[in-house]
């Protein structure tokens, strides 16, 4: 069977796992010779069979094959292994199956493969136990990265940091380790020290190494800024890096992601579109792009994006969330099933928790939304998870919890206008807190004059206290600097409330000229036209039930697209 074993190794190396696992069934079922060489052959056949099954994503079967290999290996007399060659391959199997002196099983490599199977099955505790059985000196780069992930999942950040630092000492360009360490609070100075300890690969000239360290340090600084919620600082560094690396898709996407978090939606959309022009098949953060298109009611672009994503990879969590964004307008419950599916694919996908929480709020389930936003915060707290938690607590009338969360956001994101506005939102709920809310909104505007969210909230506060003229003056002042559809809509609502219907009509039309897809402007205009005709805009329409039936009939993704 030596020739068959050699062929199986070639099939596995070629990625022909289906053929390899079929051949493996013959190899592992053959009766092993009683000699030590025969038992070693059996062990190698089981490892090869496990590799083939792992390639086919049959993780439970692969796990069984690897464990059998480990058990058979223990039964081989130690004298036999001491007489074999000392060299061991990185694959955990001997380099030449028909050699007369077989290399001993690389147990550490097989343990790593067992851990990979457990991790794929989301049995992280068992995976961690297996990885901890590998001596630290024997761990390769991929082993340290895997162990760092597992420690982080088990919330042992200190041990995770040790593993990630070791990754960077072996290779400073393990970007996953950089992001993780930045989120765990490692400073840029500590990163620089690690970089200096990394080996100079290929004997590069000192100047080349110095140039690499410069941009690497800037990238690390950006990651540290964003991890500490200094979004402006991170954006400035990324924009600087774009001068050095124009058309860098990774940096473009990072910029767009941060802009989406802090509410710079138009800029984020523009950068996502730039990234797609450079690489039309990119999937990273495309769920964020889909959510932005949905917020702009640009369903033509959203439809095209979802169509492209389904063609590229329908199994990615980003695709599930893009589908959730597309379905939200028609069927919130179906959208929720897609958000839940994204988390079944990847239970550490933060955007999935954010989307799920927002959908639960729309479905009037703030209790479940609290759980979702907390899930996002456990992975990485950012502005959106704080905003979602505050909204959920307010919906549950838990004002103290909402205020505590908003203040926590303000502490974590000091010098953040968005966090100040969040505290103002909580105070604005009660008439007694409106004066405090006004101060927080005004502070947010002073800190970030272009923050329209604070201006709109302050206008709402003026209207609630009967100061409609102040609201109009504020909004008109902003409109002189920013031609934004949301400002026109808010002005239209203020004018409609004070029966200045022609002015309201003008601003709704202006909003639709800026953004023809704006659903709020369309609904407001429709409502206003009824008011102008003397019809009660809240009266139910006769054909409302028929329209609902039509919507229910269109429930397939293909039809929706």
Please outline the helices and strands.
Elements: H1 2-13, H2 17-29, H3 36-55, H4 59-75, H5 78-82, H6 107-120, H7 124-132, H8 141-153, H9 157-170, H10 175-183, H11 188-197, H12 206-227, H13 231-244, H14 249-261, H15 265-278, H16 286-295, H17 299-312, H18 317-327, H19 332-345, H20 350-362, H21 366-379, H22 383-395, H23 399-412, H24 417-427, H25 434-447, H26 452-464, H27 468-479, H28 485-497, H29 501-514, H30 519-532, H31 544-552, H32 557-560
Helix pairs in contact: 1-2, 1-3, 2-3, 3-4, 4-6, 6-7, 7-8, 8-9, 9-10, 10-12, 11-12, 12-13, 13-14, 14-15, 15-16, 16-17, 16-18, 17-18, 18-19, 19-20, 20-21, 20-22, 21-22, 22-23, 22-24, 23-24, 24-25, 25-26, 26-27, 26-28, 27-28, 28-29, 28-30, 29-30
GO cellular component, one term: anaphase-promoting complex
Keywords: TPR repeat
InterPro entries: TPR-like_helical_dom_sf, TPR_rpt
Q: Any key phrases for this structure?
A:
561 residues, 32 helices, Serine Threonine Protein Phosphatase 5, Tetratricopeptide repeat, mainly alpha, Anaphase-promoting complex subunit 7
Protein described:
By secondary structure, the protein is mainly alpha-helical. The chain has a domain at 283-396: Alpha Horseshoe (Serine Threonine Protein Phosphatase 5, Tetratricopeptide repeat). It has helices at 2-13, 17-29, 36-55, 59-75, 78-82, 107-120, 124-132, 141-153, 157-170, 175-183, 188-197, 206-227, 231-244, 249-261, 265-278, 286-295, 299-312, 317-327, 332-345, 350-362, 366-379, 383-395, 399-412, 417-427, 434-447, 452-464, 468-479, 485-497, 501-514, 519-532, 544-552, 557-560. Helix 27 runs antiparallel to helix 28 (485-497). The chain is elongated, with a radius of gyration of 29 Å. The chain starts with a helix and ends with a helix. Mean pLDDT is 87; it is low at 80-90, 94-101 and 544-555.
């Amino acid at each position: 069977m030596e020739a068959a074993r050699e062929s199986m190794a070639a099939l596995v190396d070629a990625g022909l796992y289906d053929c390899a696992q079929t051949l493996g069934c013959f190899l592992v079922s053959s009766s092993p010779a009683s000699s030590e060489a025969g038992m070693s052959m059996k062990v190698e056949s089981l490892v090869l069979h496990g590799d083939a099954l792992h390639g086919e994503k049959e993780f439970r079967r692969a796990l069984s094959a690897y464990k059998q290999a480990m058990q058979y290996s223990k039964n081989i007399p130690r004298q036999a292994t001491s007489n074999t060659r000392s060299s061991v391959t990185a694959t955990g199997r001997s380099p030449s199956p028909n050699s007369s002196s077989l290399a001993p099983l690389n147990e550490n490599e097989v343990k790593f493969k067992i851990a990979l199977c457990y991790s794929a099955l989301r049995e992280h505790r068992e995976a961690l136990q297996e990885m901890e059985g590998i001596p630290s000196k024997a761990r390769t780069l991929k082993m340290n990265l895997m162990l760092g992930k597992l420690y982080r999942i088990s919330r042992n950040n200190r041990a995770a940091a040790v593993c990630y630092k070791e990754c960077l000492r072996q290779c400073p360009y393990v970007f996953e380790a950089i992001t993780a360490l930045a989120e765990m609070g490692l400073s840029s100075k500590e990163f620089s020290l690690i970089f200096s300890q990394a080996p100079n690969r290929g004997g590069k000239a000192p100047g080349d190494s110095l140039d690499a360290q410069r941009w690497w340090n800037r990238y690390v600084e950006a990651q540290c800024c964003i991890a500490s919620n200094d979004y402006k600082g991170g954006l400035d560094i990324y924009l600087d890096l774009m001068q050095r690396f124009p058309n860098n898709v990774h940096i473009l996407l990072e910029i767009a992601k941060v802009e989406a978090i802090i509410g710079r939606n138009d800029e984020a959309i523009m950068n996502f579109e730039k990234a797609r022009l450079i690489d039309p098949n990119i999937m990273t953060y495309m769920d964020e792009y889909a959510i932005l298109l949905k917020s702009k009611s640009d369903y033509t672009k959203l439809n095209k994006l979802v169509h492209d994503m389904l063609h590229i990879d329908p199994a990615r969590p980003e695709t599930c969330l893009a589908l959730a964004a597309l379905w939200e307008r028609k069927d919130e419950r179906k959208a929720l099933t897609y958000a839940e599916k994204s988390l079944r694919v990847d239970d550490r996908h933060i955007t999935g928790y954010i989307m799920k929480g927002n959908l639960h709020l729309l479905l009037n389930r703030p209790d479940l939304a609290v759980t979702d936003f907390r899930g996002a915060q456990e992975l990485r707290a950012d502005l959106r998870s704080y905003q979602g938690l505050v909204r959920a607590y307010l919906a549950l009338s838990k004002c103290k919890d909402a205020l505590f969360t908003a203040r926590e956001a303000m502490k974590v994101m000091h010098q953040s206008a968005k966090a100040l506005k969040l505290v103002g939102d909580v105070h604005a709920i009660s008439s007694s807190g409106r004066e405090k809310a006004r101060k927080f909104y005004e502070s947010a505007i002073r800190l970030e004059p272009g923050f329209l969210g604070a201006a709109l909230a302050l206008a709402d506060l003026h209207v609630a206290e009967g100061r409609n003229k102040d609201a109009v003056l504020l909004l008109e002042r902003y409109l002189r600097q920013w031609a934004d559809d949301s400002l026109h809509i808010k002005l239209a609502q203020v004018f409609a409330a004070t029966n200045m219907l022609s002015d309201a009509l003008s601003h709704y039309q202006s909003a639709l000229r800026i953004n023809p897809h704006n659903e709020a402007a369309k609904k407001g205009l429709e409502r206003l036209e009824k008011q102008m005709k003397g019809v009660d805009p809240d009266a139910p329409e006769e054909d409302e039930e028929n329209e609902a039936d039509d919507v229910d009939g269109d429930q397939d993704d293909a039809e929706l697209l």
